[in-house]
């Protein structure tokens, strides 16, 4: 029976590359897919590209290919990634250089273009198309002159077109995370549009692998102490046949593949288990089953598929002002009381300066910065706490407003309650990118597949 092994080599832009390198060495893979994009990652990449036209893609991926590209090529392991981001051509050029320098003659670089809809947006608006916010927040007219990027989430088809041309690597922009895993499986097994259960199974392969180490014992709420050798954490690998799906990992690495670890990833970011929507198929995992069938070997069954949605999700990033986050630490005794009093001092100063801000947050690291208003803060804890870090963050429309806060922090080492300590230098002002999720008709999106062969 035909068996395809596909590894999840990356969970996000900035993730460790150790597990990806290890699974190329020892994972006995047919494919490895690496996810680099999140909702706002493309906006960050677009800003990089505007500053430097040679940027705009995940350079981490280029470093990875430089290390394992030739080994993967020799072992016939196809690598897929959405690391192209906002500059797919830039990523291709870098991969091509590596292939040429490492004498990988015949190396085929597949890539997909067309998800970037920024230039088409004015025409779509002129033609009467509207883009209501999926979260029913805000007025599109207020952001349409502040747009940074416009990208459509797409599915497996254009990636499969590259695989049909025997691509050794496929680089995309905003392909969905799961499509990077479904595409090779649908290609290998010949799944068609009406094979809904199979397509859904392929999507869940992607869902279970796309977060890298989180699917193999990383960030494991159930029993993180039971995860072996977390310093050498392996990432999950799917072993797929025509009828079965098992999740495992490479040998000789840490991590844990268990019913509990898989269950946590199974439900991650799934709002409705009976209707997990993707461009390829709507997945129903409400009756799914998990069974431990060996060490680090879990069978996944009972996945069902339904009709795919009529429209595609489109994410619009827009400039939403500026932010600055400032910090001041306080030592025992009375650390919390001193931090609170300092916050009052700063707010009185901001009132005198006429600060105009869209949002303001005052948190106390070590007490309520994570749990906010539901944090339990009892009197005994407040008395005994060794230290507290005051964090004041603001979001403003103009940089000049942010500048009103920045110079007020460090003087409070000497001009406020005792025991204060300033660290890290003056806080920088950062651009804020807002996210506008919306939908677009499939017919308006023109995706194109390409294959470049290295001579």
List the helices and strands and how they pair.
Layout lengths: L3 E7 L7 H9 L4 E4 L6 H11 L7 H16 L3 E4 L6 H14 L6 E6 L7 H6 L20 E6 L4 H8 L4 E3 L7 H11 L6 H14 L26 E5 L4 E5 L9 H9 L8 E2 L4 E3 L4 E6 L2 E5 L2 E3 L4 E21 L3 H19 L5 E7 L13 H6 L2 E10 L2 H7 L6 H4 L4 E2 L8 E12 L6 E6 L2
Parallel strand pairs: 1-2, 2-3, 3-6, 4-6
Antiparallel strand pairs: 1-7, 4-19, 5-14, 7-8, 8-12, 9-10, 10-13, 11-12, 14-16, 14-17, 14-18, 15-16
Helix pairs in contact: 1-3, 3-4, 6-7, 7-8
- Provide the spatial order of strands within the biggest beta sheet: 11-12-8-7-1-2-3-6-4-19
Secondary-structure-derived class: alpha+beta
Distance between the termini: 36 Å
Q: How many E strands? A: 19
Poorly predicted regions: none
> Number of domains in the coordinates?
2
Residue-averaged pLDDT: 97
Radius of gyration: 25 Å
Strand content: 25-35%
Determine the number of helices (DSSP H or I, runs of at least 4 residues). Answer: 13
Helix content: 25-40%
Largest sheet composition: 10 strands, mixed
Shape: globular
């Amino acid at each position: 029976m035909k068996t395809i092994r596909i590894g999840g080599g990356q969970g996000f832009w900035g993730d460790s590359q150790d597990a990806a390198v290890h699974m190329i060495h020892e994972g006995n893979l047919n494919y490895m897919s690496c996810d680099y994009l999140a909702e706002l990652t493309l906006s960050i990449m677009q800003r990089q590209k505007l500053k430097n036209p040679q940027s705009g893609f995940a350079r981490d991926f280029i470093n990875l290919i430089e290390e394992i590209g030739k080994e993967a090529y020799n072992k016939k392991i196809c690598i897929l990634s959405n690391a192209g981001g906002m500059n797919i051509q830039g990523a291709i050029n870098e991969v091509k250089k590596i292939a040429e320098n490492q004498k990988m003659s015949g190396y085929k670089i597949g890539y997909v273009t067309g998800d970037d809809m920024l230039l088409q947006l004015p025409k779509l608006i002129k033609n009467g198309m509207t883009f209501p916010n999926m979260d029913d927040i805000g007025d599109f007219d207020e952001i349409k002159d502040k747009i940074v990027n416009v990208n459509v989430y797409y599915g497996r088809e254009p990636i499969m077109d590259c695989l049909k041309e025997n691509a050794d690597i496929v680089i995309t922009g905003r392909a969905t995370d799961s499509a990077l895993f479904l595409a090779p499986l649908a290609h290998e097994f010949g799944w068609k549009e009406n094979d809904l259960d199979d397509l859904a199974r392929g999507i869940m392969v992607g869902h279970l692998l796309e977060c890298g180490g989180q699917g193999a014992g990383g960030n494991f709420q159930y029993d993180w102490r039971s995860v072996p050798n977390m310093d050498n954490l392996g990432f999950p690998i799917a072993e797929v046949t025509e009828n079965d799906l098992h999740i495992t990992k490479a040998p000789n690495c840490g991590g844990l593949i268990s019913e509990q670890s898989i269950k946590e990833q199974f439900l991650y970011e799934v709002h409705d288990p009976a209707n997990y929507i993707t461009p390829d198929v709507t997945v129903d995992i409400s009756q799914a089953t998990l069974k431990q069938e060996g060490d680090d070997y879990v069978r996944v069954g009972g996945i069902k598929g339904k009709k795919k949605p009529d429209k595609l999700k489109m994410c619009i990033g827009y400039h939403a002002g500026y932010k600055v986050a400032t910090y001041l630490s306080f030592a025992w005794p009375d650390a919390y009381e001193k931090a609170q009093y300092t916050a009052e001092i700063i707010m009185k100063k901001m009132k005198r300066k006429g600060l105009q801000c869209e949002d303001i947050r005052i948190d106390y690291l070590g007490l309520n910065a994570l749990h906010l208003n539901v944090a339990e803060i009892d009197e005994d804890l407040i008395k005994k706490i060794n230290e507290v870090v005051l964090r004041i963050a603001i979001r403003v429309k103009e940089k000049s407003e942010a500048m009103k806060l920045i110079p007020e922090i460090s003087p409070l080492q000497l001009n406020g309650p005792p025991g204060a300590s300033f660290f890290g230098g003056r806080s920088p002002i950062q651009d804020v990118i807002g996210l506008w999720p919306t939908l677009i008709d499939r017919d308006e999106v023109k995706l194109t597949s390409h294959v470049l062969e290295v001579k």
